[in-house]
Amino acid sequence: MSTLKRNVIANYAGKAWAAIINVAFVPLYINYMGIEAYGLVGIFATIQPLMTILDLGLSPSINRELARYSASPGQEQMMRNSVRTLEVVYWGLAAVLCGVVLLLSPVVAAKWVNAQALSFGVVKQSVLLMGLSMVFQWPVGFYSGGLMGLQRQVLFNYINAALWTLRGVGALVVVIFSPSPVLAFFWWQLFMSIVNVAAVGVALWRSLPATGAASRFQYELIRSVWRLAIGMSLVSVVILLFNQLDKIILSKQISLTEFGYYSIAWQVVGSLFMLYYPIYCAFFPVLTQLQAKNDVASLTEVYHKGCQFMSLAVMPISATLVFFSKEILFLWIRDPVTVAHCHVIMSVLIVGATFNGLLYMPYSIMQAFGRMKVILYIFIPFLVIYVPLLMLSVKHYGLLGAAATFSGVSLLQDLIVITLIHRCIIPGENLNWFTYDLFYPLVSSFLLCGGLKLLITWPITGLVGIATIASCFCATLAFTALATPITFRYLKQYVVADA
């Protein structure tokens, strides 16, 4: 099995397990903590991705640099020095961030969180623990970026799966047996963040090639990567703001209970991003190495392969979630009131998240070429348009308005951004992308899944409901695989070989 295939499988296995742990425990958390307390967990989940703003592009930079160095012999010491240099910068920023958290947590608790039943003392301590958890979780991105660049993705996913299990099970135990379940939950998150950063840090250093010489801090390495790092950082900020603005605005304008409902919908939608990231992580180092070798033909072939795998991974599950949102939420949450508040919002958000995720592969090829300014010039206008539209839609239409704005702008962004990226990097590939990488998987999955939903006449509840939804998903996945050129060719090769 090739390294690329092994990494894709490992990434999916790791993300799938994390998604299972993440989703499985939500109903239990809500049961033992209450929906308002779960709103605090939703705020935690909203703020945590914003920490990548302070990453300054160091995580994707170490990923790209280690991938480039690994393609050339004699660069072992440079690899170790690069990790040491950027690691020192990262932990210096973490120390500053810790001080900021200690200063601002009381202000955030008092001015931002609209709690009704929870006391201010509990909210204040929870916000402080959230901040400290994020401080220690933040460098995990740097170390995992290094492991991805070294293509040690199997090792990373072993570690990640074990820690996600411990994080989920441990949090449930402390929530059940603690007299203050909210605080117990966030204390456990802090502990697991410390364990997590220690584990991936040790894994990265042990994965680097040994040289017999000590790793050194080199200031000139910072100068050599800072332009690319800042560009990647600004792009990450823009994309992150686009994905989080709806939740940031809503968390201020609505009650914690309402935000809890929106957070539940995003909990499911967020699982889609776990489908995008494994493919991106596996293909990005390969694209970077091919770009370093100036092998444009192979790079274009690998790029389309990644795009089609991305569509195949995302479209069938997205179609299933859109058409069966109400039934899936009820099987999961088992609370009619919560389902009534969430299911339409979830369906609308799924559409936007699907198109949003399809940008990962075009974005990765721009990263491989280091063309970050182009991405910024493309994305910033969309962000400028998105902010006022989002504020107006939230004001007049509430939760559904926020979801619809997110999805509408995501769709428009896809159509324009991908066209421009292709013209800059691989001219002449637009028609191939929209036809084979997007249209075939999209139409086949949504038409079949929607048609199957119309044919179902029995109640979709209990074990029968689970079996029904699973069967529809499997049929949609199989049909989409046949309609997607890359998987059709693979299946045809296997059939011919067996014959």
List keywords for this structure.
globular, 499 residues, mainly alpha
Overall description:
- The protein is mostly helical and 499 residues long.
- Helix content is 87%, strand content 0%.
- It has 19 helices and no strands.
- Helix 1 (3-24) packs parallel to helix 8, helix 10 crosses helix 16 (372-425) and helix 11 (256-292) packs across helix 15 (360-369).
- The longest helix is centred in the last third of the chain and has 54 residues, at 372-425.
- The protein starts with a helix and ends with a helix.
- The model has no long low-confidence stretch (mean pLDDT 83).
Radius of gyration: 23 Å
Helix content: over 70%
Mean pLDDT: 83
Helix-strand topology string:
HHHHHHHHHHHHHHHHHHH
Number of helices: 19
Major beta sheet, specifics? none
Q: Indicate the proportion of strand residues.
A: under 5%
Structural class, please? mainly alpha
Number of strand elements = 0
- Distance N terminus to C terminus? 22 Å
Shape: globular
Regions with pLDDT < 50 over 5+ consecutive residues?
Answer: none
Write the layout of secondary structure elements.
Blueprint: H1 3-24, H2 26-33, H3 35-50, H4 58-70, H5 76-111, H6 120-137, H7 140-149, H8 153-177, H9 181-207, H10 219-253, H11 256-292, H12 296-323, H13 325-333, H14 336-357, H15 360-369, H16 372-425, H17 430-455, H18 462-483, H19 485-498
Helix pairs in contact: 1-8, 1-11, 2-3, 3-10, 3-11, 4-5, 4-7, 4-10, 4-11, 5-6, 6-9, 7-9, 8-9, 10-16, 11-12, 11-14, 11-15, 12-14, 12-17, 12-18, 13-14, 14-16, 15-16, 17-18
